[in-house]
Write a structure and sequence with these properties.
Elements: E1 2-7, H1 12-24, E2 28-31, H2 43-55, E3 61-66, H3 70-76, E4 84-86, H4 90-100, E5 104-108, H5 114-126, H6 133-156
Parallel strand pairs: 1-2, 1-3, 3-5, 4-5
Helix pairs in contact: 1-5, 2-3, 4-5
This protein binds D-ribose.
Length: 157
Amino acid sequence: MRIAVGSDHGGFPLKLPIAEELARLGHEVVDCGAHVFEPADDYPDFAEAVALAVQRGDSDRGVLICGSGVGASIAANKFAGVRAAICHDTYSAHQGVEHDDMNLLCLGARIVGSELALELVRAFAAATFSNEERHRRRLAKVLSFEARSMNSTEEAT
Ligand code: RB5
C-alpha cells in the first residue's frame, strides 16, 4: 500500500520510526513532513498534506501524528473522503478499518510510547474493510452526512 505519513513538532519523534516500520513491512511511504523539528510549526499544515494525499487517491491510507492525536484527527476529518480517528489501542486500530473503513490513523506521540505506536501502525496497515452488509450500510449513512453537509455548504454560498 501507499501510505502518507506526517507529523507536526509534537509528533515528530515518532514519524521516522513509523515510516521505517511501514517501509519494512513493504509499504510505500509518502513523507508529508515535517522534515525537520520546528517547535513553532502547526499541525493543520501536515493534516492537510496527509488528508489531501488520501482524498485525491495519491495514497491509500495515512498516518498522522501530533502531540495528542486530537488536533490531527479534527483537522483531517474536514476533508471529504477522509475517515480519521485516534486509536491508542490495537483493537480500535484494526477494527476501525474493518468496520468503519478508517483510512487515516491519528496518534499522539505524547500519549503512546514508540513500541505501542508501531504495534498500532502494524494493526492499522494489516487490516482491511470487512465489506459485510451491515458495515457497508453504516458507512453509506456516514457518507450521506458528508454529502449532505457539502450540499448545504454549496447552497449557503
Ligand atoms: C502542539 O504543541 C500540540 O498542540 C499538537 O501537536 C497537538 O497535540 C494538537 O492536538
